[in-house]
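hey all, quick one before standup. I had two proteins in the batch that finished overnight and I want to keep them in one place so we stop losing track of which output belongs to which input. First protein below, input sequence then structure tokens straight from the run.
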Amino acid sequence: MTTITLSWGDRPIDLETEDGRTFLRLGQNLRVDVTDASPAQLDRLADVATDLADHQRDRYRAADVADEVAAEDGHRFVGVLYQRGAEAA
């Protein structure tokens, strides 16, 4: 089995039909043939996509909480102060 890692960000996700075959297009460069996929496999794909969306929402919420806590403390960002030069200890 070959594993392919692809990052596509907000590029389009579409269904395409060509010569009687159906493909799931992920971004510009990846196309997955789903012509012979069973309904159970397609349902599983939908479930995984839902889980991924929930995971990403949780990540966004966690980042928002950190920003809100920093704002309540009067800070504009969360991070470690960095000083350049030899006098920084």
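OK second protein, same deal, sequence then tokens:
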Amino acid sequence: MINYQGEDFTETEFYGREILEAIQLTNKFPISKKKLTSSLEKMIHEQLDLIDKEELEDYINAKK
């Protein structure tokens, strides 16, 4: 668990947050699409109980 600005994050969540901040600042992806997709998959599995099933299905279909 990583504590950042008073919030606790898993390593994967923190990594995802850093990616999104980098994208906002540079308007570019700082990592390969394959690695980004892998990280998103990890976050999905860690947060599966909190994710709306329809949104998850939309993500899966958009990825195809």
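Flagging for whoever picks this up: The CA atoms of residues 44 and 56 lie 8 Å apart. Helices lie at 11-26, 33-46, 53-63.
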